[in-house]
Structures are given as C-alpha cells and as structure tokens.
Amino acid sequence: MLYDLTVPAYINGLKALSGQLGKALAWGRDNDIGELQFIAARLAPDMFPLASQVRFSCGQAIQAATRLGAGDAPILDEDATDFAGLQAQIAATLAWLETIERATLDSDPDRAVGFDLPNGMAFDMTAATYVRDWAQPQYYFHLVAAYGILRHMGVPLGKADYVSYMMAYLRPGTAPAA
C-alpha cells in the first residue's frame, strides 16, 4: 500500500517535471529567457527559486522512501546551476526510485516514523500517517511550486503537462481534436 502511494507517484511527477523543464528550456531559447533567469526565478520573495524547488521535489521523494526503509539514496546537497543539472538530479532520483522493492516500503504501515525539523520541531506518527499527512503534501507542494514558477515565467504549460502520465490511461478516441 505505501509503495503504491509513493514510488509510482514520485516517478510520475518527476518525469512530468522533467518534461516541463525541457519545454521551458526550448521556450526560453525562443523567447530570450536564459537558464539562469529560470534557475533563480521564484513565486514570491520569501519562497525558494526554481533550482531549489526541483531539488526539494527530488529530495522529498528520496526522504519519504528512506524514512520508510529504502537505502542507498542519492545525495542532492546543492541546487543545480543549469538545466542539465536539474535534469541530472531528476534522473538520479528516478533511477534510485526504480530500485526500491515494494516489500521495503510495505512491510508495516503501522510502524513508527519520527523526524525532526531544523527548527527543532519533532514529529512521531505511523508510516501510513506519515505518507498521507507529511510525505505526499510536501512532495506535491514543491512539484507544484516548480510548475508555478515556470508558468509565472511565461512557459506555455497546462494541466496536461503537469499530469502528462495520465495519457497512458486515456480512453481511445476521447482526446480533443487539435
């Protein structure tokens, strides 16, 4: 159960983010917006820039899986400085997620999961509650923030870019005409 709620969702979201970044890079070249402008862009002065949001999206997927028992995770200590670096962080995270065995995460949804935040706050909950109330909201917050920054910069993204993985489930003959 916990595997199904995490690893496939993280893979889907990170692949979609990779596609959004590819679209942003191409659009930026056509519209004289450089990689550094994207990398440093943020939605508000007190929010992290795109580079951090991408790293945090990867990091939240890694952190959730490791707190649930996965090992040998990649370490993403610093923000990428260009799109190749952003894509490399996503690729490393995806490659690692693909190695996680279902049994590792699904062993006991009622086991204790605790963690401390840098500000001194500490949390204790079950693995299932951790996934529902912390891991998933944190992951999607940063994924949406990255999407929002790209939209804010003018990249022509839509919901189909955010949930591009849904096309695998599209019923034949139901796509709108172009």
UniProtKB/TrEMBL annotation:
<dbReference type="InterPro" id="IPR034660">
    <property type="entry name" value="DinB/YfiT-like"/>
</dbReference>
<dbReference type="InterPro" id="IPR018531">
    <property type="entry name" value="DUF1993"/>
</dbReference>
<dbReference type="Pfam" id="PF09351">
    <property type="entry name" value="DUF1993"/>
</dbReference>
<protein>
    <recommendedName>
        <fullName>DUF1993 domain-containing protein</fullName>
    </recommendedName>
</protein>
